[in-house]
Amino acid sequence: MKVVVLLKDGFEELEALSVVDVLRRANITCQMIGMDALSVTSSHGIEIKVDQMFDESVYEADMVVLPGGLPGATSLCDDERVIDILKTFNQQKKWIAAICAGPISLEKADVVAGKKFTCYPGFEKEIPSGIYQDVLVCCDQNIITGRGPAAALEFAYTILEKLGQPSKDIREGMQYHYLVK
Fold this sequence. Notes:
Blueprint: E1 2-7, H1 13-25, E2 29-34, E3 39-41, E4 47-49, E5 52-53, E6 63-66, H2 72-77, H3 80-91, E7 95-99, H4 104-108, E8 116-117, E9 131-132, E10 137-140, E11 143-146, H5 152-162, H6 168-173
Parallel strand pairs: 1-2, 1-6, 2-5, 6-7, 7-11, 8-9
Antiparallel strand pairs: 3-4, 10-11
């Protein structure tokens, strides 16, 4: 299994790095992909060195993840490479995950039409073709969406489960089981 997390300046670090952390703990290949540079700066001014720049090898992944954060999520939405990978993954029934404002790209790529989704409150207005759910994490067919920063770990654990690996040991190792009874 291989997962790619697409990053542009202004991404929400908690939403991106929680996925990377959880998947790497589970020994799943998870690469941070810089869309424009090898170094990206989060919406809170934290500079992150990515694993590689975007290239055609991204299409070989089993899942693509879009974090939220502004202006990162809108920058991803405006990037035709992102829209193309979303359309391609959807046609191939590969996993697509987006959190917070990230699902706006799903609307532009026309991959969420008629599907249940969640996002940061208010962004559902920009996703009229989907069926908004007021929940932390939502799954419908090959689409996984998360509400926002508070949902980041649950979003990451859901991704892990959808990739066929149980999350119980990782949750316990991270002490998450104390939070959810």
